[in-house]
TrEMBL record:
Keyword Membrane: yes
Protein name, as recorded: Uncharacterized protein
Provenance organism: Carnobacterium viridans
NCBIfam families: perm_prefix_1
Transmembrane stretches, start-end: 98-119, 139-161, 197-219, 225-249, 270-293, 299-317
Keywords assigned: Membrane, Transmembrane, Transmembrane helix
Organism superkingdom: Bacteria
Keyword Isomerase set for record: no
InterPro entries recorded: Perm_prefix_1 (IPR047928)
Length: 327
């Protein structure tokens, strides 16, 4: 049912926002939901019912022709983009590689200090920690730290540039009915894997401090193995969070769900601009009060106040956009 609602929203984002269009959207949604329930009662599966409904009611060209409408081309170019099935497949393949790359880069950043500490601990283990050797060992241990961080930064840059080529940031993605059904089916099949990955990541992050405490008890607190074990568990957990989180957000973006709903995307264009001004301004006010009135201990209250007011404004603005789209 959510697939049908999301599709109708994506269709009408291209049409004039008039009371007649709002009524037409409501009627279309009602008819599609009634047909969906009828097909379900006849024994069709959810995906079959959705596919049939979208194929029967989802032709936007017929709506435009019947009501002599024109798409709001300027607004569509600005806020929306249509992706074919091939383009969706290409974007999904890119996001899989993107998620793997970004997750790997984050893991390398987490493991970099662990590798440095491991280098020092191995030197101590093999008795290379004489005063004459310590300076050289400390210097050499920094080399793998910077190498891993350099590799991570390179990965971030490469995949970041590739991501920009798709130019889908702050865009409402519009799909044809068949592609939407296939993508929604893939998302439903992906959800169990996503839940398992997030659960495993949480478990690993919980085990991380436990491994630290066990290492201290068993190996003593005069070495860095406890921190190394901690970072190892955390790195695997974070990898799962980042990789599966990126994949899940990709489905949400293509299906216009969650934070990628049309009103939220449109609202973010203004709120991001305001955030870029208001939060640096709040920092400047805090520093000013601190240096002039020595109010470091009390002036910090400006940050939570700013955050609360900004969140309230963002929610109100999204509601106004949603109301406007219905009129």
């Amino acid at each position: 049912m959510d697939t049908i609602k999301s599709y109708v929203e994506s269709v009408f984002v291209q049409l004039p926002r008039t009371p007649e269009m709002y009524q037409l959207k409501e009627d279309m949604l009602t008819n599609m939901e009634d047909k969906y329930l009828q097909l379900k009662s006849e024994g069709q599966s959810e995906n079959e019912a959705i596919g049939t409904v979208l194929s029967e009611f989802g032709n936007i060209d017929e709506i435009i022709e019947e009501y002599n409408l024109e798409k709001e081309s300027e607004e569509v170019d600005k806020d929306s983009v249509f992706l074919s099935e091939a383009e969706v497949e290409d974007f999904m393949q890119h996001r899989t590689k993107f998620g793997l790359g970004i997750a790997t880069g984050v893991v390398l950043c987490i493991l970099a200090p662990a590798v440095m500490l491991s280098f020092n601990e191995l030197a101590n283990l093999f008795s290379f920690n004489s005063p004459a050797n310590m300076e050289g060992i400390n210097l050499l241990s920094i080399i793998p730290l910077f190498i891993l961080i350099a590799i991570a930064v390179g990965i971030f840059i490469i995949f970041g540039l590739k991501e920009e080529q798709y130019n889908l940031d702050k865009k409402v993605v519009i799909l044809d009915p068949t592609t939407r059904v296939h993508l929604d089916r893939e998302m439903q099949e992906f959800k169990p894997s996503f839940a398992k990955a997030i659960a495993a990541g949480v478990i690993l992050c919980i085990l991380a401090p436990i491994s630290l405490l066990l290492a201290i008890v068993l190996l003593g607190d005069d070495n860095a193995w406890s921190v190394i074990f901690l970072l190892g568990f955390v790195s695997v957990g974070v990898f799962l969070f980042v990789f599966y989180g990126i994949l899940y957000s990709t489905y949400e973006k293509l299906l216009s769900l969650g934070d990628y709903q049309p009103e939220k995307i449109i609202a973010s264009k203004l709120t991001d601009t305001i955030a870029g001004v208001i939060f640096p301004l709040a920092t400047a006010v805090y520093l000013l009060l601190g240096f002039i009135y020595n109010a470091w201990g009390t002036a910090w209250i400006i940050f939570p106040i700013t955050g609360i007011l900004f969140a309230a404004f963002s929610s109100l603005y999204q509601s106004l956009i949603k109301t406007k789209r219905r009129k």
